[in-house]
Amino acid sequence: MLTKRIIPCLDIKNGRTVKGINFVDLRDAGDPVELAEIYARSGADELVFLDISATEERRKTLADLVYHVAEKVNIPFTVGGGISSVEDVDILLQNGADKVSINSSAVKNPQLINDLAAKFGSQCIVVAIDAKQIKGEWIVHLVGGKVPTAIKLFDWAKEVEERGAGEILFTSMDHDGTKNGFANKALSKLSTELNIPIIASGGAGSMQHFVAAFVEGKADAALAASVFHFKEIEIVDLKRELRKNGIPIRL
Fold first, then answer.
1. 19 falls in which pLDDT band (50, 70, 90)?
2. pLDDT digits over 98-123, tens only?
3. Do 198 and 188 meet the contact criterion of CB atoms below 8 Å apart?
4. Residue-level pLDDT at 27
């Protein structure tokens, strides 16, 4: 059985790590390079670095910051934000990223998924999907959750897999920053209907929320930010709790 993964997320705005609630009300959470180094030492399985304003501001992810973060970590490292071409990905991988995450650009140009998978391999391509429930349907949102589409979460997730994505990072906007738990029903449906790994994001507030994401949500990995940034949950303690609950995890 494959081990489950715990992934701290570094949301970056103007070179600083930030965290908000439901994608707004951002507050400073520290220096991303320092945090990345701490997480690598404290047992994180992977890191995700998202330049959350890159797409909105029509600029590219800060490749030099990626370089400095990658320099300090010895675990897989995913980078996203403002990626819209093969050239963008090439630059990020050369600067030390192991994987890239695309979101809005994939919806606007689905062929990008095919092109990136063909050039760099599916194992390198994560498609992030931000969605919220509207009238009972999970609807995909773009540009950091600010722009709703007419696309349904599960339809898009299946297309993403067919086009060659290696993983899906699903964030429930309804749960983001609330610390009330992950969207486990949606996670379970994604995990059941797809054959690629699903990363759960949005809602972590306690160790039991992680347990539920793996047991009820059938997630392959769980991502969180503020509970790690502000030391509400220590990764080593979380992993011991997961192991106690019979969840395969690397200690």
1. low
2. 999 999 999 999 999 999 999 999 99
3. no
4. 59
Q: Are 175 and 223 in contact (CB under 8 A)?
A: no
Annotated catalytic residues are 11, 130
CB atoms within 10 A of CB 115: 16
Of 228, 230, 214, 133, nearest to 181 (Cα)? Answer: 214
Per the CB < 8 A criterion, the answer to whether 72 and 36 are in contact is yes
Taking the CB of residue 108, how many other CB atoms lie within 10 A of it? Answer: 12
Strand 77-80 vs strand 137-142: parallel, antiparallel, or unpaired?
unpaired
Please tell me the number of Cα atoms within 13 Å of 149 on its side-chain side.
21
Q: Which domains does the chain have, with CATH numbers?
A: 5-244 (3.20.20.70)
142-181: burial string, b at 16+ Cβ within 10 Å, e else: bebbeeeeebebbebbebbbebbbbbbbbbbbbbbbebeb
